[in-house]
Design brief:
mainly alpha; 17 helices; Growth Hormone, Chain: A
């Protein structure tokens, strides 16, 4: 084992260490995500308030990435910005344990702060990873990061499920507060691992050779076509909250046109659907990340074509088999977006302006994800078949734009 570890290149060692940081970070905030809705409700927040807080957090979390991306490129302080973002991100989560009874305003503010922390770190973090990724295969590198990231996303909720299972004393509010306190452990581990990685690799930009001549960044036809493609994908990709609401409604026969589900899927197994989707997310990120290094944009086209019909199976069919296959296809789409979409940015945007490129990418993706989720939610109440058609159509329309972007030279 030691010989194998010694055989790793410095760039791959950096990628693996950074991926462990992502794993620990996701254990923290994905663990929190699994109970935050229930926690806010116990604190006195209404459903509308919870929705507003979630939406506001995502709006800040994505829109600010453009500003922090430009700031990172201007200052070149990628490590400092990444560390500040991570500290704000992960420490805002266990701070929720300090919220007292009826403290939903304080809790909501902390959740928005957590998303702002993510906005601070994301462009700089992706840029740091891209420097090493250019040496080890861009698709493979981002796939490894996503693989470990999603393992953390799986472990966080599972750990809190076990904590709630065995801690039966106290009120529900006290039990949830204890869960957030437990998340201080992976939060501190995240910061510690980040500092270890920073100490071992203080200048990761040295992994990628400087270009022979300065290449100014401009939003050219290639990048515009790519942004248009990812915008359509984000717009049509249904958020999991709508999926799980639909599945939950189907048990009581609220969703029109659905027959009664069998015992394979019930209220006890619903949380496991998300865990299963995260595992498929991780596996597909690895598969399509490796494929991207060999086949380029074709990997993105294949992954989109495979995942796009998930809405037909989840919302248009009534069998457990269709539901499980649909969830698996949704997981493929999630894995692809987290690995290939980021890898493509590193291939398009020059080194000196990459954080700006990531900031633009993340901002546009988030805005269209928000708009799509809003419209698809409205369409769900109006006409499920129309919602399915819009979701699948938007994702499939992204394919020719990916192709045109790949073929465009400027």
């Amino acid at each position: 084992m030691k010989q194998k570890l010694r055989a790793l290149s410095p760039a791959m060692t950096f990628i693996l260490l950074f991926s462990i940081v992502s794993l620990l970070s996701d254990m923290t905030h994905e663990g929190a995500a699994s109970i935050r809705g229930a926690y806010l409700s116990l604190l006195g927040a209404s459903a509308a308030t919870i929705g507003f807080i979630s939406g506001l957090g995502e709006l800040f979390g994505y829109s600010l990435r453009f500003l922090f991306g430009k700031f990172a490129d201007k200052t070149k302080r990628y490590w400092l910005i990444t560390i500040i973002g991570y500290i704000v991100d992960v420490l805002a989560v266990p701070a929720l344990a300090l919220v007292g009874e009826h403290g939903w305003i304080f809790a909501g503010a902390l959740l928005v702060v957590e998303r702002i922390g993510k906005a601070i770190k994301k462009p700089a973090k992706s840029t740091l990873l891209s420097f090493a990724a250019t040496q080890e295969g861009i698709g493979k590198s981002f796939a490894i990061q996503e693989l470990l990231d999603q393992i953390g996303a799986f472990l966080g909720p599972v750990i809190l499920y076990l904590v709630l299972l065995f801690k039966t004393s106290g009120t529900d509010l006290q039990r949830y507060s204890f869960c957030f306190a437990i998340l201080l452990i992976p939060a501190l581990a995240t910061i510690a691992m980040l500092m270890v990685t920073r100490r071992k690799f203080p200048n990761p930009e040295q992994f990628e050779p400087e270009p022979k001549e300065y290449i100014p960044f401009k939003i050219d036809r290639k990048f515009l076509l790519y942004l248009a493609g990812i915008s359509l994908f984000a717009f049509g990709f249904i958020d999991y909250s709508l999926i799980i609401m639909h599945v939950t409604r189907s048990f009581s026969g609220v969703a029109s046109g659905l027959s009664e589900t069998t015992s394979l899927v019930n209220s006890g197994t619903i949380p496991l659907l998300y865990a299963g989707a995260m595992l498929i997310d991780a596996a597909s990120a690895m598969v399509f990340g490796l494929m991207y290094d060999k086949k380029g944009v074709r990997a993105l086209i294949i992954s989109t074509a495979l995942s796009a019909p998930f809405a037909i199976l989840i919302f248009g069919a009534s069998s457990n088999t269709a539901l499980l296959i649909g969830i698996a296809m949704w997981g493929i789409g999630m894995g692809a977006q987290e690995s290939i979409l980021k890898a493509a940015v590193a291939s398009i945007v020059p080194k000196a302006s990459r954080a700006t490129g990531y900031g633009i990418f993340e901002c546009v993706f988030g805005v269209f994800w928000f708009l799509g989720s809003w419209l698809l939610g409205i369409l769900y109440d109006w006409s499920i078949p129309v919602m399915i058609a819009v979701s699948m159509g938007a994702q499939l329309l992204s394919i020719p734009l990916y192709f045109l972007s790949a073929k465009s030279k400027t």
